[in-house]
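QUALITY CONTROL LOG
STEP: pairwise intake check
CHECKER ROLE: data steward
CRITERIA: each record must contain a sequence immediately followed by its C-alpha cells, with no blank fields

ENTRY 1 OF 2
RESULT FIELD BELOW
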Amino acid sequence: MKKAAPIIIVVAVLVIAGGAFALMKNKNNSSSSASDSSTSGMNMQKSTNDSSQSTATNQVSISDFAFSPANITVKKGTTVTWTNHDSVAHTVVETDGKTGPQSSSLANGKSYSFTFNTTGTFKYNCSIHPEMVGTVTVTE
C-alpha cells in the first residue's frame, strides 16, 4: 500500500496541473477570442464597406490573411498583380468557374499577375485559406 501512495500523488499532481493548464489556456483563448471577435467585427465592417465600394487599382496586397483591397474594378485588358506580404504562402484562385486567376503557391515577397480580357465579375480566394476572398470586376 505504501508504493501506491506515491503513484496516486503523482497522478493527482498531473491531473491538477493539467486542469490548471487547461483553465489558463481556456482563459487565454477567451480573452483572445474577445479581442479576435472585436477585430473580426472591425474586419467584417471593413469587408462590408469594401464590398459596396470597389477600388480602381490593379495592385492587390496579400497581408494579414486578407486581400487588400478585397474588391477592385478594372478595365478590360488590365493586368492585376497580387503580392504576398504575409510570412506564410497564399494562392490566388478563381472560384466561380470562369477563366480567372490560377496562381501557384506564393511565398512571402512573391507576386502573381493575371490579365483580364473578359468583362464580368471574377470571384477568387486563397485555396490554402479559403476564408480569404476577393473580387475583380472588369468593365469595358
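ENTRY 2 OF 2
RESULT FIELD BELOW
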Amino acid sequence: MRRFSQGDAIYSQGDAADSVYNLDSGWIGLHQDMVDGRRHISKFLLPGALFGVEPKNVPHGQSATALTAVTLRAIPVSHFNHLRHDPCFNERLLLMLTCENYMATEALTAMSRGTAIERVARLLCELTTRLTEPGTDSNSIAIKVPLTQRVIADATGLTSIHVNRVIGRLRAKHLVELRDGVMVVDDLKRLTVFAGVSTSLRKVWRIGIAFSPPLRFRRQPPADNSLAGACSAAAGWSHFSNN
C-alpha cells in the first residue's frame, strides 16, 4: 500500500508506465500540462479506480496528482498482464475501457460546444452522480469535495474568475452551491436537465472507470494458476489479497 499527501504526484507526464494503479481511498486528478503552465484535468478518480494503463512501450500521457490524501496499490505491469488471462477480469476491464471511451466522446462534445455554465454544471452533475446512490435525485445532497475554483477551471477550460461567476449563476438558480469544500445540490434531477445530461450518460457515470471495491492483489500468482480462485461470484471479477 502506498500513501500520498494532497498535492503529491503519483506519476508525471512522460514517466515510464511500468505500473498500473488501483485507488483505495481519496481523490486523484489526471491532467496534462502545457509548457506555459496551463493545465487540463481530464478525469477525477475516486476509490476503486484502475488507472495508469497505457499502450505497450508508451510512457504516461498524463500526470496523476493527489487532490486529497490518497492510498493506492501499485501493480507491476508484468503482474497486470498476467491477470489478463482471467476471463472475468478481462470482462470487467473491457467494460471499464468501453465506459471510458463513451465518457471521453461526451466530454469532448461538451468542451467544444457547451457554454461555460453548461460545462461547470455537467462536471458537478457527474461528480454528484458518481458519489451518490441511485434514487437520490430529488433529495438535497451535501458532499465534501476537494474542488477549488482553480480545479474546476482546469477541468472545464475556463478561468478561475469565470468559474466564480458561473458558480454564482448556478447558486442563483438554486441548482448548486459550493462553500468551504462542500458541494450542496438541492435537486440533482433539475441539475441533470439543466446540464443537458442524458440518462445513458448518467448510467455510464455510475458504472464508471472503477473496480469497486478496489482490487486486492497477491505479490505472486497462486501455484494452481487459478488467480486466487478466479472470479468472485458476488462481484463478478477477480479478487486478490496483498497480504
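INTAKE CHECK: passed for both entries
DESCRIPTIVE NOTE, ENTRY 2: DSSP finds seven helices and eleven strands in the chain.
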